[in-house]
Design a protein that fits this description.
By secondary structure, the chain is an alpha/beta fold. Helix content is 39%, strand content 18%. The two termini are 22 Å apart.
Amino acid sequence: MDTQTNKRTVIMDVDTGIDDALGIMLAAGSGDCDILGITTVNGNVSLEQATINTLKITQLIQHNNIPVYRGANAPLVRKPTFEHAVHGNDGIGGALQDMDVQRSTEAQPAHEYIIEQVMNRPGEITLIMTAPLTNLARALLHQPDLPQYVREVIIMGGAVNEYGNITPTAEYNIYVDPEAAKQVFAAGFQHIVLVPLDVTRRVLLDRNHLAALARTAKPEIAAYVRQSTSDYMQRYEQRNGVQACAMHDPLAVAAALNPKLVSTTAYHVDVETNSDLCDGQTVCDFQNRLGKHPNIQVALNVDHIEFFHYFLSALSRL
């Protein structure tokens, strides 16, 4: 963290679909962080598509100075599971299909970049993970003592009291690579905040927010948000009966940069990796039945009004 400006120094790890893109935009416009770099990973879409989307978003917001690093093109041991039904074939609802990619990625692999930056800046870097946790798990395999050098890890993932969004019990990011999540949860990071569906489903972007953005943001920013979320909103309404869409990844970014927006409680959390019905479930030991030390701060409440004030304000500054 930059102690003079109180800004967090962050690395963002993304599988850029619709809400990852909005998370990047929130971070860039917030004024509350310095984005060292963005690492990409297979998830919502392929590694290649996630990387293209990330480059396009940085171009859209004119932050071409943020380096982008390609990461894992598949989970640790499983086959990829994409989410085209939610995010569209290109991952961002077709919103930037006419934009040419005018910049390139860095040569260094994502996990090596994470290790290098963390080890060179001990206690300074916040990792914001809004994708399957494959890149961080790979970094841990190469640098097992990494956790003692990381300031904090903020993870969008899991569902502790809620039903899942890919299976009845599992949230997508954890489900795609549960082995990676299990490793990260057990690695001994000093401070992990889990931002699960329990709170992300309470921050719903709707037409009123889009109208507010149209009044305050640059036309190209407002148009992008409206177009990229259009089909997402329709699918959310079909599934949940509400004409809106959940801001999963932006809430995790906001929780990293403005922690007072969520309230957390420390629990022991693990991940199921060997179940026909419950694979990828985040198991939160609310009553300490397992007798294990809490390893994660779980976000269970959110100030949704303040979140949207923060989100809309940030995008209006881009």
